[in-house]
């Protein structure tokens, strides 16, 4: 077990991960096998622990209130990359998740109200069999973990919106940014594009239903999902996760690029929050420039019960 002061935000491995730089974008920093790029958090009332997802490996972490890391759950084969890590590393996810595109690891995580299951989503299609194929694919993945055994029991196909039906949107820029579980078989999904303001096309919250979806865990399809057409999935009898639009934030004039936090306040009210990237970005000379983008939470009341 590892206490949080040992953890950094540095990438884990040279090659698969981004090159780490200082805040000025000039000096190259060292890699860290315990480094984490945290993206999502959920609470387990059953044992009073928090589960966090991060992008580097990608991985899930179970953490106590005092900051003790009980375990870091990674894809099969990833332990070899994390030599020298201080925390307890457990190979849990299918090995194909080692092929996540850089900076596109686990982005959303949520535990069902029953406390039985954890859902975790990869941000975008992976480099399977290569990055070009992944960037052109609409096939994303959401996994389901049994919290009693900490084993993955389901892997399902979530089909992203078709970029070709929108203006100024690339398929590779349509991502899942967060999840919120409504039941053991339904979650809210935050699906968005990379645009902001008037250029935004996709800033949507969907209700995703797993009840009739095909579990592809352990199948040959899991190893080649991104390169399989939607038509071929249908011919194979693969049912994707059902999608029902709940809120379209473009129609509400949402001004920011990244809706990255999602939760439900009650049966008809949800809340979102944006990621403002510390109010900075980099110019063409890799120098910091302020953006002035604030962090804001929006609440929305919907017409029908969410659960």
Tally of DSSP helical segments:
2
Structural class of the helices, strands and pairings?
mainly beta
- Mean pLDDT over the residues: 95
Question: How are the strands of the biggest sheet laid out side by side?
Answer: 1-2-3-4-5
Q: Which runs of at least 5 residues are low in confidence (pLDDT < 50)?
A: none
Q: Give helix % range.
A: under 10%
Shape: globular
Distance between the termini: 37 Å
Question: What does it look like?
Answer:
This protein is mostly beta strands. The longest helix is centred in the middle third of the chain and has 6 residues.
Based on the model shown, name its key terms.
2 helices, 5-stranded mixed sheet, 4-stranded antiparallel sheet, 307 residues, mainly beta, globular, single chain
